[in-house]
């Protein structure tokens, strides 16, 4: 019995699809990030290091698979299926539900595909637009939590404070993103 195809066939109404093919660069960037992490394997049992080692030999085939997924606009359901693992928190009674932190382990190939999509989205937003807000630090290349903290620090110790004015700052969470808000008071 043959395994089902990873990406089911789809009917396309328009042949004017401008979805770019997966490139070796997309895959190399995603694999490089995978190489830097030491994560537990998902339901398929393949750790990230196995994908890193096999990427040279499997690269063209994996690239073709990811390109087909992008072209059809599909994310295989199997890559979204996770394995739930409960990790015990120290100092909590074992019989308490709050003593465990749930973690869902996903297949590494799905994580590779997510990285390819995230990189493409970030490139599109930065190049074609609409660009992300200047004060947004999440989902931005070369911006980190440390950068956001330094910005808050600069706002609260800068010219407004030196002139005897004040600065009101706040951090909010909107649609799963942290946003920094600052208002200079005179």
Automatic annotation (TrEMBL):
| Entries under PANTHER family matching the protein | REVERSE TRANSCRIPTASES
Q: Which InterPro entries match?
A: DNA/RNA_pol_sf (IPR043502)
What protein name is recorded for this chain? Reverse transcriptase domain-containing protein
Q: Where is this region: Disordered?
A: 1-24
Report the record's Gene Ontology biological process terms: DNA biosynthetic process
